[in-house]
Amino acid sequence: MIEIKGLHKYYGNHHVLKDINLDIGEPGIYAILGPNGSGKSTLLKSIIGLVNPRQGTISVNGISVAGTHAYRNEISYLPQIARFPDNLRVFELIRLIKEIRNEEADESELVNLFQVESDIRKRLRNLSGGTRQKVNMILGFLFDTPYLILDEPTISLDPVSLTKFRKIISEKKEQGKIIIYTTHIMNLVEELSDHIILLLEGRIIFKGGLKDIYGKTGSSSLENAISMLVDKNGK
What we know:
Layout: E1 2-11, E2 14-24, E3 28-33, H1 40-48, E4 55-60, E5 63-64, E6 75-78, H2 90-101, H3 108-113, H4 129-140, E7 147-151, H5 159-174, E8 178-182, H6 186-192, E9 195-200, E10 203-208, H7 210-217, H8 222-233
Parallel strand pairs: 3-8, 3-9, 6-7, 7-8
Antiparallel strand pairs: 1-2, 1-4, 4-5, 9-10
Helix pairs in contact: 7-8
């Protein structure tokens, strides 16, 4: 379980997260949604310890994330923008990540799934944006962890790779994992997500399932329902 209580984060004088309270314990797929600048990525980075909140607590399986890194072994993370060392080859990067985590993993199935066999010996500087995102995807799904945190995972993916992404996270859900992700693709949310958390200007303005958000707004379109909630709470 991931428990977040009274979380506040500032960048200088900018109040990015405002009293975030969340309990994420039930296996399934959680979509963190909201306009650009609403605090989605900052929330995810707070969970994995990439940013430190000014106030509030975060715990994973009852262990506070403050001052420890051990809990990260329970989490797989896929950043929105992956910054790889350009001089490394793809297979060298994968090997490096396994050494850093001190964990064994077999990437061959993912390499085949995303069809990067021909790129495995290329230097990262020579890859297209789409292929770099496929490598990012391989790293994000490389380890068998109970939690997966994915920040805009579908950026730069072609339709074939997007279909494969759907397949993977559906399988992870069936395995009892907790998947937390951000996206702007609403049909993906409608198809896959069990829970929706909607942020606006650093605050949670909605928590619930698809039926809940449709019932609250009277809309049968997720895009319209979100727009209505944002307009209502932005005034």
